[in-house]
Structures are given as C-alpha cells and as structure tokens.
C-alpha cells in the first residue's frame, strides 16, 4: 500500500515565483493495484513517483509504503526509468542479479533466481550478452526482469516505454502484465505498481486505476474493471472509449474527446 498524506512540493522559478508540482495530495494506492498516472508535462507525476522511491522527499506531508514513512530509497521499492539504467560494464545476467548480490544472496541461488526472470521475459538466451548488443526493447526487458528479481514490493515505472515503437510497446505491455499477474511476492501477493505515462491508451491497457494530474493536483481518479489483457479491439469498445473520453476532458483536451467516442 502507498499512502500520500497532504503531500506538497514546489520549486523556485528564475523570477522568484514558485511552480507547484504537488499541491496537498491525498491518495491511497491499495496493495497489489496497478495504477497509472497521466498528465501534461510539468504536472508533478514524475516528482510524485520519485518521492515514493525516496529519491527526493516532499516539503510538506508524508508518503508511507506499507505503513512505513518513506525517508530514503530502499529494497522494498524498485524503479524503471525512461532512460536505460542498465550497467553497460556488466553482462545481462550480472545486471539482473546485482541487487541480490548486494544483499549477499549466495551466488548459485541468485543465478537461478535471475535466470528464472530472464526466461520469463524471453531473454534467457542472451544472459551472457553485453547491454550494447541488445535492442532498446530488450534493454527494457532486462530492466523489468531486474526489478522483479530483486523482490521489490512496490514497482515504480517512469514512462519506461516512451522511447519505443508502437509494436515493441505493445509487446512489453504483455510482458509486464504477465510478470505482474504471475510472479507474485513471496507471500503470494501481487506487487503494487505505480506507472507514469503520457499515453492514455497505455494507461487504459494496463491499469486498475488511472489518476489524472494537473498543476500538482489529482483531478480525476478512474477505476477500470475491464478484464485484461486489453487488446486494441478492446480499446475500441464503448466502455473504454467512454473512459478515454472522460480522461481527455480532464486533461483539457475537449476537442480530442469528441473524436474518441
């Protein structure tokens, strides 16, 4: 569970004024939920994600993960960035098991664990390759395998598929959902996922809930009950077209909302 209580954050502008990126945010992400945050650039969605990760802390209020106040990064949270964050000097398998090595997991055990996740993302055959030998989509699979292998309870993804082409994104949506559905925590629970995106269709494909942010506030909290996986045909059904219509309106894109239904 992730809890936001009166979270506030602002940054100074050159003219002396301040830009607010988190304006007294209160929200709860339930354990095992897959939640997408969408909104225009500068609305605060990435700042919120980084605060959950402990990379920076809110100026006011607090964030709790499973009841514990976030004060720093920790192994209970894993993050996948938009830019590749794979160590280029390590082979693929060494990247995936790096977090386990830092926790002194025995080599044989961590190798088996890492290989299981590489197999789950269809990369077992490139375990001994160098990152420079992989495509962009393959590098994202390595990053996803890594956060799952490290056993984080909360997965934080910051526009991870933004730079990729449409077909690769759709393939990775399925990879991510399969891992989230089938590779649970040790207690048998699904990981809690917070996923930042600019892409409404991506949010509608992946999420249990979609939070719309604008000017540092959550302006819409939409629940999606449609079963997954959601195909392109599913996105054209009346329920999901109506959901897209509502999200576009809350993003201030009324003209596009008219085209979505």
UniProtKB/TrEMBL annotation:
CDD domains listed in its UniProt record: ABC_NrtD_SsuB_transporters (cd03293)
Keyword terms: ATP-binding, Nucleotide-binding, Transport
Stored Pfam families: ABC_tran
MF annotations from Gene Ontology: ATP binding; ATP hydrolysis activity
Keyword Transmembrane helix belongs to the record: no
Start and end residues of each ABC transporter domain: 2-240
Nucleotide-binding listed as a keyword: yes
InterPro entries found in the cross-reference section: AAA+_ATPase, ABC_transporter-like_ATP-bd, ABC_transporter-like_CS, ABC_transporter_ATP-bind, P-loop_NTPase
The family this protein is said to belong to: Belongs to the ABC transporter superfamily.
Protein's name according to its UniProt entry: NitT/TauT family transport system ATP-binding protein
Organism the protein comes from: Salipiger abyssi
């Amino acid at each position: 569970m992730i809890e936001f209580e009166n979270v506030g954050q602002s940054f100074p502008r050159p003219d002396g004024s301040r830009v607010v990126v988190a304006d007294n945010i209160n929200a709860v992400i339930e354990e095992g939920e897959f939640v997408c945050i969408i909104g225009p650039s500068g609305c605060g969605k990435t700042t919120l994600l980084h605060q959950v990760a402990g990379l920076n802390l809110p100026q006011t209020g607090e964030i709790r993960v499973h009841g514990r106040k976030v004060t720093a990064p920790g192994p209970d949270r894993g993050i996948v960035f938009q830019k590749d964050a794979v160590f280029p000097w390590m082979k693929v398998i060494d990247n995936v098991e790096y977090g386990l090595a830092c926790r002194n997991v025995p080599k044989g055990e961590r190798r088996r664990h890492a290989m299981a996740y590489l197999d789950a993302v269809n990369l077992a055959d490139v375990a001994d390759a160098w990152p420079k030998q992989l495509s962009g989509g393959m590098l994202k699979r390595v990053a996803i395998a890594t956060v799952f292998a490290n056993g984080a309870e909360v997965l934080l993804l910051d526009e991870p598929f933004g730079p990729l082409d449409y077909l690769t994104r759709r393939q990775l949506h399925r990879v991510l959902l399969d891992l989230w559905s089938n590779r649970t925590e040790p207690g048998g629970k699904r990981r809690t996922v917070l996923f930042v995106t600019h892409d409404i269709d991506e949010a509608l494909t992946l999420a249990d809930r979609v939070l719309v942010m604008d000017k540092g506030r959550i302006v819409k909290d939409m629940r999606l009950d449609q079963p997954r996986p959601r195909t392109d045909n599913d996105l054209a059904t009346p329920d999901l077209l109506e959901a897209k219509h509502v999200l576009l309106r809350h993003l201030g894109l009324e003209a596009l909302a008219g085209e979505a239904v």
